[in-house]
Amino acid sequence: AVTRGPDIGTSASFLAMGQANQKPYDGSVFVGYMDGGTLLDYASNMFEIDMKSITPADGILVAADFNYDGCTDAFVSGRTVFDRNEQTSALLAGDCSGSLKIASVGLPAFYEGAAVVGDFGRDGRLEYFASGSVDTNSAEIFYYRFKSDGVPENVSFSSLPPLVGLRYSVICTGASSGG
User: Fold this and answer.
1) Backbone angles phi and psi of 35, in degrees to 5
2) Is 45 exposed, middle or buried (0-12, 13-18, 19+ CB in 10 A)?
3) What share of the chain is helix, strand, coil (3-state, %, to 5)?
């Protein structure tokens, strides 16, 4: 999974997480940014914990300012690298210096899916929409709105058209003139 990462100084970055393709197949985290024409990895400076312990396989990664403090945050979810039957997720709060730490709030874990974040209601608040597997036999839809204090609240499905959870999903968003 790859998404935009937090700004590192005046440089934009990208955040990539997944499972290494060589033994011991540990989790792998890369935070890349350009400095003077050279691609650098900032991951060792970015996290207050060893991210390899929560790096998911078959997962998703989205970035946004979930807590409205002006800093880029990230949400990661998937199966744990060390036990493929266990799911993990973490909402990571950015501190505007290029670092992320696990937030005290979170979102449900899932894998083999996709997620998107945006102000879909055009009310100044972020919404999170995702679909993916919650176990080997079922997939679910997740729809959350982030309140002004950055705490996610589950949006009732009664306000949505009939939806079915999808595995191996892809979510795309488009632009609208708002008119």
Assistant:
1) -140, 110
2) exposed
3) 5, 50, 45
12: Cα within 13 Å, side-chain hemisphere: 4
Contact 75, 115 (CB under 8 A): yes
**Encoding tokens for residue 76?**
């990661």
DSSP calls for 120-132: TTSSS--EEEEEE
What is the Cα–Cα distance from 108 to 83, expressed in whole angstroms? 18
For the segment 3-56, what is each residue's pLDDT rounded down to a tens digit? 777 777 777 777 776 666 666 555 566 677 777 777 777 766 555 545 555 566
User: How far apart (Å, rounded) are the C-alpha atoms in residues 62 and 28?
Assistant: 16
Please state, in angstroms and as integers, the Cα–Cα distance from residue 43 to each residue in 15, 28, 111, 132, following that order. Answer: 9, 10, 23, 27
52 Cβ contact list (under 8 Å, min separation 6): 26, 27, 28, 29, 81
Entry pTM:
0.74
